[in-house]
Amino acid sequence: MNGTRLARAAAAIGVAATLAAGYAAGGQAGLTDAAAVAAVGVLVVARGTLRGGKPAPVRPGKQDQTPAVSADDFPAYRSIASDLEWGRLSRRHYQHAVRPLLARLAAALGRPAPAGLPLPADADGPGPDLVTLEGMISRLEDRT
Questions:
Q1: pTM of the prediction?
Q2: pLDDT (tens digit, 9 = 90+) per residue, 53-70?
């Protein structure tokens, strides 16, 4: 215990001496600079002397598990998902990618192709929203 008290007393005297030297050298500005240097020094010493436990993993138990299936295993799925996303953002992409995809799906299911969207005044505008696309797909699957 004496060693710990002696170390704390030496640290307090060192910080006080640093502050006094800063004030003597530069007045109030020197005191501020010395206080900043002393604070950084205290933090560095405290970090070096205090030992923490091993940090807990972010997701305990999940690091060793790899998924059995990933999206990388299905490039066609990634392509369809990308086309649907772009089809919502661009009417041109809807007309050239999503609409033929839906027509092929309808043909594979033996159902009539979904009706096309009305042409807007701005052909470069956004494509159909998600609700419209979901409605088309649900009509193809006879869920409605």
A1: 0.44
A2: 777 777 655 555 666 777
